[in-house]
Amino acid sequence: MFTLPPPTRFDLRFAVFGIPVRVHPLFWVIAILLGSSSRNLTDIAIWIVAVFASILIHELGHALAMRRFGQHAQIILHLSGGLTVPQPVAWGSGWANIALTPNQEVIITLAGPGAGFLFAALILALTSAFGGSIIITTILGFIPIPMAGFPNGNAILNLLIVSLLWVNIFWGLINLMPIYPLDGGNVARHIFAKSDPLNGIRKSLWLSVIAGGVVAVVGFIFLNSVYMAIMFAFLALQSYQTLQGGFGR
Is residue 218 domain-resident? Predict the structure, then answer.
């Protein structure tokens, strides 16, 4: 599910800031599954644009942080969202991989959701500067999510703004959950491994199992998202299977 998809002749290819990007055709499927329940084609198209832009910005955060530490990367958007894949760098007459420290790995990992939060803050600032309004909505009764729009303004623009904020803030927070292979799970792995080199990774896997199960239940019962429930149940099971395979013993 989170492995590197092979290239196809239908891939969309381009570059941003010199970073190569490849969009697998199945990415557009995930863009629809992630949340738009509308049957209106315009609404679906706006949602797809918001998901595409948001995930690309997220992966650019990882890639630019890698570049800061001398590591080249490429971005691949696919069925499970996005991946930022390290690339070998020229070394003498050959190629070599960059060895990163645990702290650098944590910075690179957090740069993804960080880029999304900065993008959301920019959207809120621009909306406010041009006379829009900002409201605070809550998810599950206690998670505050700022939303913005223009009262009596263009419906398409308002929907785009709300969709961009929703993806970058809500899914940014979800991505920080300590679940493998999400960014929060990778950060937890580095923190646990640093504090407990012998059993740290195993502890992070157990945390991933528990957190994945909780998010799956919350997604199904409180957010009415079957896709979210299936995905996080799968991630929890994947972590459990890794544990049963003897990882960390």
Answer: yes
